[in-house]
Amino acid sequence: MADLTVRFDEDEFEALRRRAELEGQGTRQFVHDVVMSAVHEHSGVFRRAADHVAGASEELNRRLA
Fold first, then answer.
1. Which of 7, 20, 35, 41 would bridge 30 by S-S if both were Cys, CB 3.0 to 4.6 A apart?
2. What does the angle CA 53 – CA 35 – CA 19 come to, to the nearest 5 degrees?
3. Concatenated DSSP letters of 32-62
4. So what's the pLDDT on residue 54?
5. Is the Cβ–Cβ distance between 16 and 30 less than 8 Å?
6. Mean pLDDT in runs of 10 for the chain (65 residues)?
7. Residue 45 belongs to a domain
8. Phi-psi sector, 2: left (phi>0), alpha (psi -120 to 50), beta
9. Number of domains in the chain
10. Is residue 10 part of a domain?
């Protein structure tokens, strides 16, 4: 398993700790879940955009053929 060190100033870390507590999670698990959620969301946005472009290109290519 890979490991990653992320640095926060004290105010940032305290805000992060409080938010994790509100979510009922430890800080490490909360950070992991937030990062992975962002990764998956980005992938979904990219995939939807790529599908849209592919669909538009397909129509254009059909017209040009």
1. 20
2. 130
3. HHHHHHHHHHHHHHHHHHHHHHHHHHHHHHH
4. 80
5. yes
6. 91 96 96 90 76 79 78
7. yes
8. beta
9. 1
10. no
